[in-house]
Amino acid sequence: MIDVNEKKQRDQWGSKIGFILAAAGSAIGLGNIWKFPFMAGQNGGGAFVFLYFAILIVVGFTLMMAELTIGRHTQLSPVGAYRKLKAKWAWVGFLGVLAGFLILSFYSVIGGWVIRYIVKALTGAFTISDPDALGGLFGAFITNPLEPLVYHAIFMALTLGIVIGGVKGGIEKYSKILMPSLFVMMILIMIRSLTLDGAMEGVKFLLLPDFSKINGGVVLAALGQVFFSLSLGMGTMITYGSYLNKDENLVDSSIQIPLLDTAIALVAGLAILPAVFAFGFNPEGGPGLLFITLPAVFSQMPLGSLFGVLFFVLVLFAALTSSISLLEVVVAYFVDEKNWDRKKSSLVFGLIIFLFGIPSSLGIGIWSDIRIIAGRDILDSVDFVASNVLLPLGGMLLCIFIGWVWGLDNAFKEVTNNGKIKFPLMNVWGFLVKWVAPIAIGIVFVQGLIDTFF
Ligand code: PFF
C-alpha cells in the first residue's frame, strides 16, 4: 500500500484488486479465526451467529460503504477527513486512533501465540488429541511469565518492520496467493472436523439458534464482533477508501469485503466447534479455544504436523495484514496531525503498544486473578472497551455525521460519482445510515452495557 502521509500527490490503488486485497487483508485476521469461534462458544452458539448475521446485514454493509465513501471523498485518513468536512468532528477520528492502540496491544499478544504454535507444530507437538493434555500444553505456555511476552515482542517487531520498511505493497501482493491458500486449508480442516464422531453436536450448537440465550450482553458482543471483524468503527476503511479512484464502484466493494470476511469466520467456526464437541473440549474455553482444539484435529489428519505448521503460518500472515492496518491508524495520526517523522512515530508507538499489551498477556496466566470489567480478565477487558464501546461509538457517530451533518445528498453524489454509477438501493442505504443504524447501535450499546454491568 501507499504511505498515508503522502498528502501532496496522493497515490491511488494500482488496480481494483490491490484495494480489495488490502481492505480484505485488514478485515480477515485473528478476528475471524481466533475470536469468532470462541465468542460464539461463549455467547450461546447459534444465537450469537444469528445475531452476527442480522447485525452484519443492517449495520455491517451500511458502515462499510459509509467509511469508504468518506475516505474516497476527502482522500484523507480519519482525523483529517472529519476535520475537512466539519472541524468540530475531528475528535471522532481520534476515538478511532485510541481504539487502534488498544486493539493492537492485545492483538499482538495473540499473534505471538500463533508464532509459538508454529514452533510447537514444527517440533511435532500435534500428535495428541486428549483435551487435558492439550489444555495443559497451552496452560504451561501461558502461565510462563516470560515466554508469551517474547513472542508478543516478535509479533510486534514483524508488524513494525513491515510498516517502517515500506514493504506493505509487497505483503499485499503475497496475500493474493496466501489468503486463498488459507481459505483452502481451512476448508480441509473443516471437513476433517465435520467428519469426526460427534461433530454434529457442534454444528447444531453453532447453527441452531437457541433464542433463550439472547440478552443485551450477547447482542452487544455480536455487535462488537461485527465491528472488530470488518475493521469498522475506527476509520481503517476511511483510510483505505481514501486511495480509491473515483470510477471505482464503492457498492461492490462494500458487499464483497464483508462477504469474504464472513465466509472465513463461518468456516473457522465450523472447523473448531464440531471438534470441540467431538473431543470433549469446553465450548466456553475462551481465548485459548483455537490453540487447544485444532491440534487435536491435526492429530487426526494424515500429515497432521505439516498441516499444523502451514495452517499457523498462514494465520500469522493473515494476522499481520490486519496488525499493520491497526498500527497504521495510530502512526498516520501522528504523522498527519502532529508532523511526526514516520519512522519515529512507528518505533515509539510500536514500543508503547507492546508495553501496554504486557498486562493483557500476564492476565491470562499469572495475573488471571485480576478481573476488571464484569468478571473479565485484563485482555478481555481491553477488548471489551475497544470492540464493544469505542468501535460501536465510532460507527454510530459516523452514521450521525453522514446522515445529519455532512448530508445524504453529498454522500449519494460521492457513491454514484455524480450519477455516473448506478445504485438502485441508494435510498435504502440512506435510510439505514440516517436512522436505522445509529438507533440500532445506540439501543444495543445502552442495553448491552446495562446487561453487562447489572
Ligand atoms: N479485522 C481484524 C480481524 O478480524 O482480525 C482486526 C482489526 C483490524 C480490527 C483493523 C480493526 C481494525 F481497524
UniProtKB/TrEMBL annotation:
What are the recorded GO MF terms, alphabetically?
Answer: symporter activity
The protein's superkingdom reads: Bacteria
Q: Which Pfam families match?
A: SNF (PF00209)
Which InterPro entries is this protein grouped with?
A: Na/ntran_symport, SNS_sf, YocR/YhdH-like
The membrane-topology field of this record reads: Multi-pass membrane protein
Mind naming one GO cellular-component term on file for this protein? Answer: membrane
Q: Which SUPFAM superfamilies match?
A: SNF-like
> Keywords of this protein's UniProt record, alphabetized?
Membrane, Symport, Transmembrane, Transmembrane helix, Transport
Chief subcellular site? membrane
Cellular compartments annotated:
Membrane
Bilayer-crossing regions: 17-34, 46-68, 89-115, 149-167, 174-194, 214-238, 259-281, 306-335, 347-368, 388-407, 428-450
Task: Fetch the CDD domains from UniProt.
Answer: SLC6sbd_Tyt1-Like
The family classification in the record reads: Belongs to the sodium:neurotransmitter symporter (SNF) (TC 2.A.22) family.
Question: What name goes with this protein?
Answer: Transporter
Q: What is the lineage of its organism?
A: Bacteria, Bacillati, Bacillota, Clostridia, Peptostreptococcales
